[in-house]
Design brief:
Helix content: 55-70%
Structural class: mainly alpha
Number of strands: 2
Distance between the termini: 25 Å
Strand content: 5-15%
Strand order of the largest sheet: 1-2
Number of helices: 5
Length: 66
């Protein structure tokens, strides 16, 4: 488990901003329950728990400038 600052990645940041909107729209139309709050805990509780702890123990570059 990582603690502290996350390593910035320009490539991943750009991919997250550009490919997500259309992909999410298609998934939301096809998969019932996709994008609803709390679905991560139902589908994969181990990963959801890891992500919750990771988000609380690390911070990104943007968080420094808030």
């Amino acid at each position: 488990m990582k603690f502290g600052m996350r390593k910035p990645s320009l490539k991943k940041s750009l991919a997250a901003r550009t490919t997500g909107k259309a992909k999410r729209a298609v998934k939301k139309a096809l998969i019932p329950g996709y994008g609803q709050k709390g679905m991560g805990w139902l589908r994969d509780p181990k990963k959801a728990a890891y992500n919750k702890v990771y988000r609380k123990t690390t911070f990104g570059l943007k968080d420094l400038f808030k």
